[in-house]
Q: What sequence folds into this?
C-alpha cells in the first residue's frame, strides 16, 4: 500500500488496521537525546480513543503504546546516562489492538458486501478486490488515526523545545458555534482537559497511574501486561465524571473539548439529540500554531498552506481553510489585506486574515487553520446501497459499533498532524537558513 508516509526530514510511516494485530509508527528524523515514555504518548492517545462515553463508539480500545526501537537499551559507556534516550535511529511505536471480539467481526462480515454510503468501503473494494481489509474498515477506519496522534506527540515535544506551540479545539459541532476565546485561555483549557481525562481514565490509572508499566521494562514484559488487559477489557468501566466538580474546578465540559463551556454544553445536547434520531453530525475543528519564525515554508508546489491542506488526509475531513478561508470570497481587498506597521522596531500586522501564511511562507503571525469534519457515515437509519459483489440493489441499516460524531475525537488528530507538518517545515527552514553566507 502506497501513501502511508509523510514528511521529508521528519518522516512518518504508519501501518496496520482496525482489526489487525495493531498499528505501527516508524518515525525518521527524531533528534538524538530525547526521552519519551509510553505514558507521555498515551496522554495524547487517550484524547481520541473510543469507549469514553455517549460521543464515541463503544469499542473499548486501550490505545496503550509500546516504544519498540529507536532508544538506547542501556547506558552506552561508563559515565554516560543515556539509557532510554533517542539515538537518532528510527523511532518505532506499536499500538496493539486489544478489543476485537469475534461477535463484532461477524457483524462486519454480514454487512461488508453492502458498502456504507459515505464510507470508503465501495472504493476500497474496487482498488483491492476480494483481499480488501474490510473488517472494521481496515486502514480506512478512524482507528488508524491513533498512529498520527502518537507521531504528533513526538513532533509536538520537539517543537515545544523550539518555542513553537500547537493547539487544536472544536470550533463548531452539530451546527453550534463557539464564541471567540483568547489563545492563552484556549491553552489553559486544553491543559485542564488533559488533566481531567488523565484523572478519570481507567486505563491510565491502571497501567500508568499505578506504575504497572514502567519505561525500563523489556518489550515482552509490557506485552504481558497488555495481554492481561485484553482479557479484561469488557469489564473495565467507562469513566464516570463528577461533572459538577470538573466544571467548578476546571471550567470545562469533560466530554468534548471546546474552550467555550456554554457552547460545549449546547454542542453535546445537540449531538445527542441527533444521535437519538439514529443520525450523525459533523463540525469544524480549528488549530493554531504559535511561535513560528517568518519566512518558513517553500514556494510553488510546497507552499506551507498547501502542506496544511494535507489535513484532508485525515478521514472525514472534507475541507481546510487557512485564515479567513472561504470568507475571503465575500470580502473586498481593503478588508482582506493584513496591513503592516512598525512598532518599537518590530513588524506588527493589524489583522490576520492570511492565517499567518502568504506566498506559501510564514509571516511570523499565528498560523490558523480550520478543518470541516463531515458526519459519521455509519448511522442507524436505513440507507440505499448495493451488494458490491453481486451488483444488486440493497438496503442497509447499520449494526456495527459507531460514533455519533467524529468531531469529539478528531481534534487531537488535527493537532498531531499539524505538528508533523510544521516540524518537517521547520527542520527544512533551519537547514536552509544555516546555508546562508556568514552563518
A:
Amino acid at each position: 500500500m502506497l501513501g502511508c508516509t509523510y514528511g521529508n526530514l521528519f518522516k512518518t510511516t504508519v501501518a496496520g488496521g482496525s482489526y489487525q494485530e495493531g498499528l505501527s509508527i516508524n518515525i525518521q528524523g527524531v533528534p538524538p537525546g530525547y526521552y519519551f515514555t509510553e505514558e507521555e504518548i498515551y496522554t495524547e492517545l487517550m484524547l481520541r480513543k473510543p469507549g469514553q462515553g455517549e460521543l464515541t463508539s463503544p469499542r473499548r480500545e486501550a490505545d496503550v503504546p509500546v516504544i519498540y526501537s529507536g532508544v538506547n537499551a542501556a547506558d552506552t559507556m561508563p559515565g554516560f546516562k543515556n539509557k532510554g534516550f533517542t539515538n537518532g535511529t528510527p523511532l518505532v511505536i506499536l499500538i496493539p489492538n486489544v478489543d476485537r471480539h469475534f461477535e463484532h467481526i461477524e457483524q462486519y462480515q454480514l454487512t461488508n458486501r453492502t458498502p456504507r454510503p459515505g464510507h470508503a468501503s465501495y472504493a476500497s473494494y474496487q482498488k483491492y478486490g476480494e483481499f480488501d481489509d474490510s473488517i472494521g474498515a481496515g486502514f480506512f477506519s478512524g482507528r488508524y488515526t491513533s498512529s498520527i496522534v502518537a507521531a504528533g506527540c513526538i513532533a509536538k515535544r520537539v517543537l515545544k523545545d523550539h518555542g513553537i506551540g500547537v493547539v487544536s479545539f472544536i470550533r463548531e459541532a452539530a451546527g453550534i458555534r463557539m464564541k471567540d476565546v483568547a489563545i492563552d485561555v484556549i491553552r489553559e483549557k486544553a491543559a485542564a482537559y488533559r488533566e481531567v481525562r488523565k484523572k478519570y481514565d481507567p486505563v491510565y490509572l491502571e497501567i500508568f497511574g499505578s506504575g504497572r508499566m514502567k519505561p525500563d521494562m523489556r518489550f515482552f514484559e509490557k506485552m504481558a501486561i497488555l495481554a492481561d488487559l485484553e482479557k479484561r477489557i469488557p469489564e473495565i468501566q467507562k469513566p464516570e465524571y463528577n461533572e459538577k466538580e470538573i466544571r467548578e474546578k476546571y471550567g470545562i465540559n469533560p466530554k468534548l473539548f471546546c474552550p467555550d463551556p456554554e457552547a460545549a454544553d449546547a454542542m453535546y445536547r445537540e449531538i445527542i439529540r441527533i444521535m437519538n434520531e439514529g443520525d450523525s453530525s459533523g463540525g469544524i475543528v480549528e488549530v493554531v500554531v504559535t511561535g513560528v519564525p517568518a519566512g518558513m515554508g517553500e514556494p510553488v508546489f510546497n507552499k506551507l498552506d498547501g502542506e496544511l491542506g494535507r489535513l484532508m488526509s485525515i478521514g472525514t475531513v472534507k475541507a481546510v481553510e487557512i485564515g479567513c478561508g472561504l470568507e475571503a470570497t465575500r470580502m473586498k481587498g481593503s478588508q482582506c489585506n493584513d496591513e503592516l506597521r512598525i512598532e518599537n522596531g518590530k513588524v506588527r500586522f493589524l489583522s490576520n486574515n492570511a492565517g499567518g501564511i502568504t506566498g506559501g511562507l510564514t509571516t511570523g503571525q499565528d498560523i490558523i487553520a480550520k478543518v470541516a469534519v463531515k458526519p459519521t457515515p455509519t448511522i442507524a437509519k436505513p440507507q440505499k446501497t448495493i451488494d458490491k459483489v453481486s451488483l444488486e440493489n440493497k438496503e442497509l441499516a447499520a449494526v456495527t459499533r459507531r460514533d455519533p460524531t467524529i468531531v469529539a475525537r478528531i481534534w487531537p488528530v488535527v493537532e498531531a498532524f499539524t505538528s508533523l507538518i510544521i516540524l518537517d517545515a521547520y527542520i527544512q527552514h533551519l537547514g536552509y537558513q544555516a546555508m546562508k553566507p556568514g552563518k
